[in-house]
Structures are given as C-alpha cells and as structure tokens.
Design goal:
3 copies of one chain form a homotrimer.
Chain A lengths: L1 E9 L6 E4 L1 H11 L4 E7 L4 E6 L3 H14 L16 H10 L2 E7 L2 E2 L6 E6 L6 E9 L1
Amino acid sequence: MKTHTDYLYLNTKNKKEIVNITGEVAEIVGKSGVKEGFVHVSAMHITAAIFINDEEPGIKRDFLEWAEKLAPFNPNYHHHQTGESNGDAHLKSILFHHEVTIPITKGKLDFGPWQQVFYGEFDGQRKKRVVVKVLGE
Amino acid sequence: MKTHTDYLYLNTKNKKEIVNITGEVAEIVGKSGVKEGFVHVSAMHITAAIFINDEEPGIKRDFLEWAEKLAPFNPNYHHHQTGESNGDAHLKSILFHHEVTIPITKGKLDFGPWQQVFYGEFDGQRKKRVVVKVLGE
Amino acid sequence: MKTHTDYLYLNTKNKKEIVNITGEVAEIVGKSGVKEGFVHVSAMHITAAIFINDEEPGIKRDFLEWAEKLAPFNPNYHHHQTGESNGDAHLKSILFHHEVTIPITKGKLDFGPWQQVFYGEFDGQRKKRVVVKVLGE
C-alpha cells in the first residue's frame, strides 16, 4: 500500500469562481505511482467546494447563478452576528459538497467522457488550500 | 491490499428515473473477496447521481419532484447555447451528488436497516455507466 | 494495511439538531493507529447527514433554517402514504449528504483551520448510529 499527500493553493481573482483542477489532480496521481486506488480531493475551507461536472463555460455560469438562487447572499444570516458577511458561501459549500473521491484505474483517473474536477470558490480573493490524497498500490 | 474494479451499465426507460443498484454493488463486493475496506460507486456522467436512501416508492417520487422544484427544467440555461437542453440534469446531479463510498465490514455493505444505494438518472433513455471500485483486504 | 471500524450512537434532545462529532472521530483515528489513510464517517440512517463546516452557533442555526427552506416539512409528500411524516428529513439528508471522507496525515485529521465534522439530525429523539471506518497504514 502506498499513500501520497499533496496540496493545491488557489487565490481566485473573483469572489465567486469555478476553477478546473483536473490537470493538477491527474499530475499528483502520476507522481504518486499509484496504479489502482483512490484519490481524494477536499477543500480545506468551509466556503468552498470540490465537485465533478462538465468543462463548459455556460454550465459554469449556470452553476454560479443556481448557487445564488438556492443559497443567496443575505445580510440577515445569524452567522453575520460574528462580524462575518459570508453566510451564503457556507451554504453554497454544503450545496456543492466540499469533497470528491475519484477511482484510479491503470494509473489514470477513472472518469467518464465528460467528467472534470472543479474547485468552487464562494468567498475568494484570498489564499485557499485543497488537500489531494492518493491511496492504493 | 486488494482492489477490484467493475462497471454497471444502465439505460433507463424514462428520462428521469431512480434505480436501486444495491444488489449489483453487493455482488461486486462479494466477487472482490474484500472483507474490510471501502466500495466506491460513482456515476461516470454529469447528468446522473449516486445516493443512499430508502427503497420506498413514495419517497422516490418525492425525490424526483423535489429535484424538479430545486433544479427545474428551464429553456434559458446558458448551457443551452451549446445546443444542449439538459442544463437541469447537470444541476440535479450536483444536488444529489454523483458518488458514494460505502464501508465494507465482515464482507458486507456496512449499512443501517433502511439504507440502499440508488442510481439517479436525470437525462436517460441512453446507455450510461457507473464505476464500482473496491479497496481493502 | 490496517482497518478499524467503530460506531457512534446519538440520541438528540431535539427533532432537528446539529452535533459536533470531531472529538469522537479524532479519538477513533487515534485508536486505529493509522498514520496515513482515510477515515470515512457515514450516518446509517436515511434522515440524517454528516457534513463538514464551522463550529459557530449562528451558522448552525442558519443551516437548520436553510434546510427547512429548501426541504420544508409538508404533509403531502408521497412518502407519507406509508404512515410516516418525515419526508422532509429524507430530503434534508440528501441536501447535506450522509457521509464524508477525511484524509489522515501524520496521524491527524488533515483539516483546514476551521473545519469540523458534524452529525445533522433531521428526525431525532431516538437512537441513531454512525459508522466510522479507518483504512491506511
């Protein structure tokens, strides 16, 4: 059994942004030498998400608009009594989920034809971190 | 450490349908010979989901109606500028999540009394694939 | 490769409640002796969730209010034709997801500064169970 741990650092230009991290994750899997196993990818922040979907600019805009519809900015969240103003970003993180596990088969991400892995930033413009952990043989 | 990889193929009669795949997943775990570990089940498509809940026809109808309420069909998604019309299915896939990991204990799915694993199809009537990967000993 | 399996038992005072289980999960990881690997935490019930976010009382109230907004109590769910009245709790379980996987690095939960793991109860006041399974070396 082998394990390999790596971290990605992101600092998005926009407050809310969807970033394709498939290349970085595949590269870490390559470095790990694992041919059969899992790679787990988690946002280490409570206002961000990791999810799998399609690299298509329109659907990425739809994701951000849908997130705003279901988990809107609202000055009145209880969380804001702490002085924060990012309650909506916590809810968006829950909606999109903060982690994925991806099977590794024959040394590759075992993805369908359109699957890509994304970092969803909902409270950006500052340094954030993602853990990428590989386990297998 | 052992790993075992298998695929399920689904082609639903309806555009939107919830299919219980617990038997198929349990059979693959049996074939793998793994007694202690994890089985990971992922839809390999960006318009489908894998989730765990209850085998009860009423709640399955509720799931489809709830999905339609929170992620409705809408001709105006940006994604549709590509010629597609399934933007809602992408959103439904995010809402239900496309993957689960299930612990294997003493050779069995370590489930509570009512838990079953489901494939949620949101853009069906065509061949789709699910990866089932077992890792353990 | 080592595996270690444990269970948490919860019986919340309130019908809906969010319980921080980070200490219990970290203790099980410690007992397992695993230094590099994963711990998987799943609710074994279809009306509960496991998720990662922030230990802040305001955001926990926001989570429960948001769950009620997106997956409200409603006497008319199809599921209620079975005699049940907890259809909303099934939907809330889907919304928050019933499981997390947490990387273990150098014997610790590999968390960002604010991450904590929570049990989300949506149909409580009775005994519930959570499986915690550690795999690694």
